[in-house]
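Morning - thymidine-5'-triphosphate inputs below, output right after.
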Amino acid sequence: MEDRSIIHVDMDAFYAQIEQRDNPKLIGKPVIIGGTSSRGVVSTASYEARKYGVHSAMPIKAAKKLCPEGIYLPVNMKKYKEVSKNIHGIFTKYTNVYEPISIDEAFLDVTGKEALEIAKSIKKDIRDKLRLTASVGISINKFLAKLASEVNKPDGLTIIEKDEVLSFLRPLPITKIWGVGPKMERELNKLGIYYIEDVQNYDVEVLVSIFGKRGKELYEFSYGIDNRPVEPRIANQSIGEEETFLKDIYDMEMLLDTLKDYSFNLSKKLKENRYLARTICVKIKYSDFTIETRSMTLNIPTNDERMIYKTAKYILLNKFNINREVRLIGLTLSNLIYPDDPIQLSMDI
Ligand code: TTP
Ligand code: MG
């Protein structure tokens, strides 16, 4: 694959920074944004509050113990979404090959352009137009660009050049590898793997025998290999999966199993992006190439694998009349939203 230039932009302490901007009295203070009920959790904390050990996903109660003098504010989602729209608007000035990945993050593919100049200009735009700071990473792929953006937070700008990749990765903990959450971490620890260097030195065949495809990915990430493209899309579009069977089938079990796999993958994608979906649509293409779609809209948006599958199954069994062979089945989730409440979503795989 030819060399690419990928930029990753991530706003610093996003919700908290917006509140500090809008109320200068909060500047320099530990500000904690989160659910205000007794069972609420921290959405984010300003960098001042992080010094006390306060972080996202921690119960507010625990945060108050660590940082009693903190200023605790509720989540003003409407405001943050508006700012998010403005940020994504800035990115599209530079390239159409831009992939929003959450409310405050995006990848841009600027291959063939002056990546450093663009990165500086994006930071300047965000500062001048929105009076906010972002951290930016530049490298040869998504995985490395995202790591680069984390290095010098807040207000950072970091490049990982091609010839620095291996030495940069070597000392990092394995949790820095894309998709390695606490569960995977424990499994790797059992093999004596703690740092990315340990993955580099491990026998890839053994990793594959234990983790399958994921083992190979892990090994490739440890060497900084990541060929995933920046996939341009607009937040609030839809996500979906479909597959043409090798041979047309008339087997309900297999259709359901396929929907189950899709539900798992799409739920994971929703969680990674911190989206919830309301509309679930099943598509069937028959052996004569006619296509039918049926959908349902949930009262409560979800990212739950079981809920997605349950609904898809209901649609398949009740809204279709499958009386001939099926060539393709697809599942699409639309009506994607950001949660209005600071629901904590696990990134673990
Ligand atoms: P992040 O970019 O993960 O965090 P951040 O911008 O607050 O801080 P950092 O400087 O480390 O990037 O998430 C963006 C926003 O998403 C964050 O401001 C609040 C929200 N969020 C939650 O509501 N719950 C969570 O568990 C996390 C991680 C984020
Ligand atoms: Mg951020």
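Note: The domain at 238-337 is CATH 3.30.1490.100 (Dna Ligase; domain 1).

O.
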